[in-house]
Amino acid sequence: MLRVAIVGCGKIADAHAAEIQRIKGCEIVGVSDSEPLMAQQLYERFPVKAYFSDLTELLEKAEPHVVHITTPPESHYPIAKLCLESGCHVYVEKPFTLVEREAQELIALAQKTDRKITVGHDGQFRHAMRRMRALVQTGFLGGRPVHMESYYCYQFGDSGYAAALLGDKQHWVRRLPGKLLHNVISHGIARIAEFLTSVSPKVIAYGFASPLLKRMGEKDIVDELRVIISEDEHTTAYFTFSSQMRPSVEQFRVYGPQNGLMVDLDQETLIKLRGKKFTSYAEKFVPPVILAKQYIGNLTRNVGAFLARDFHMTSAKKYLIESFYRSIVEGSAVPIPYREILLTARLMEAIFLQLGDKHLAAPAQPALELETRLTTT
Fold first, then answer.
1. Does domain 2-119 sit in CATH 1.10.760.10?
2. Delimiting residues of CATH 3.40.50.720 domain(s) in the chain
């Protein structure tokens, strides 16, 4: 039986506890929060054996094999470090760490202590994303990706969290190096990082506060971001984050030398983009039929997953957690390679540096040393 603990008992901890209890062969042996009432409420609402207000006490008394860290990002590094040093495997909610250096140190420590660590990029394991990954691995693109486009939109009106952020000048998100962006863009960046091969891609970032935020008197929060990422003479990518563009979309597109793929995460659809055009007027009539058949196929798959009770909103989180636990029990590879975690951290830091964050003035680790770690999973 895998013994699991959760540190940080806010809203996101509920999603973790709900998915953990669906997984066979594990139990939640303890939860911890610096505010005792938060730990107690999670303990009372889920099948949890004990609750604590001190992390050290949790580690000593509950003796977990795995610790889920669901605290604000600025505490991820010290908590994960303590858990690894205590002999625990660690699942860290996104963003993995505040800066790239911390990500490097945690992964190096995990390798040194023979423990495993992962990050909550569960969006990578949505149904459509897993189907896309399988097609890429079969060679559908016809070679390595030529170009990618990742879109991640955010609507302030749809989130109580956003209202709290805008209404509280002391909100913890405002202390992050990338503020709002730091807490939300890692999903979209990780989709790009998965298919990059170089250690230090070139990054050009441009961000600004939307007219909406300016009218509200907000000057510090960037809610419109455009990024170009490129590898010399190889793959390029665009990343778009927006709170204003409509329709509000979460999409990923990858184009190869022969064919392309488009994933819509909102609609949970995967569309194959045919590289070759049809002859003459057939190009005007055949592609719509092909697309219609694909959308019907996506509908059928989604209905099937729904009827099989595998289509709930956090099913991807369950898949990632379950895969991580399997890697621990069976000694297999972690579901998210360490090079992707590190490269995502590096890309995000490059973006925030260009947006002028003074907290990221420390020089990055030399590319050669990072390359050694990127090639280790």
1. no
2. 2-119
Q: How high does pLDDT run on average in the chain? A: 91
Higher pLDDT: 35 or 166? It is 35
The amino acid at residue 238 is Y
pLDDT of res. 161: 66
8 Å CB contact between 141 and 261 = yes
Mark out the alpha helices in the chain (DSSP H runs).
11-20, 36-45, 55-62, 76-85, 100-112, 127-137, 160-167, 179-184, 186-193, 211-215, 282-307, 315-330, 338-354, 367-374
Checking 136-141 for CB contacts under 8 A at 24+ apart, the result is: 136/195, 136/254, 136/261, 140/256, 140/258, 140/259, 140/261, 140/272, 141/254, 141/255, 141/256, 141/257, 141/258, 141/259, 141/260, 141/261
Alpha carbon of 250 to those of 30, 129, 191, 192: distances in Å? 35, 12, 11, 13
Contact 348, 182 (CB under 8 A): yes
Helix (H, G, I), strand (E, B) or coil at 156: helix
What superfamily does domain 124-330+335-369 belong to in CATH?
Answer: Dihydrodipicolinate Reductase; domain 2 (3.30.360.10)
Q: Which single residue is written with the structure tokens 């863009």?
A: 185
Residue 106 pLDDT grade (very low, low, confident, very high; cuts 50, 70, 90): very high
CA angle 369, 354, 223 (to 5 degrees): 125
The encoded tokens of residue 94 equal 């996104």
Residue for token pair 């597109």: 253
Span of 21-35, 232-246, 262-276, 363-377 with lowest mean pLDDT: 363-377
- Give the model's pLDDT for residue 373: 47
